[in-house]
Amino acid sequence: MERILLVILAGTGGGLLAQRMHFPGGAIVGAMLGSGLAAIIIPGRFVIPGHISTLIQITLGITLGMSFDRSSLELIPKIIPLAMVSTFILVILTIFMAYVAQRLGIVDSATALFGLSPGGMSGMSLMAQSEGYRTDIVAMLHTFRIFTLFLVVPLLSRIIGRLF
Fold this sequence. Notes:
The chain is mainly alpha-helical.
């Protein structure tokens, strides 16, 4: 339990430091870096108890849900076609990348499919686990993807915002 507390403290410290330094992605990226570094340094595997994981997911869901307002409803008919096309393109690209990963002998194609998919890390990891695939690889691929997006998207949004 004390090892988990050390990782939580490292993640909290990393998140607060990154937020204070105005790091792209701020608290989330800093927390991922801090806790990830601690998890690598401290020996052993870390498993968050199911009830705590559920509480974290509920808190995140509430935080995201609170961002909606009535004006969001009028955008739905305009956004759905874009979301469908985006999802289709991402799934096709995911299938291709999973095939490449399997052909290169990196990981089996099913694990790669779960790990490279555009879905959320927790959902994809849980589904991969229930199907008997490498959850650690799925989580690692999603962590890298999300970390990269949290760094790149804020920078791109600033650049694109200035251009247009």
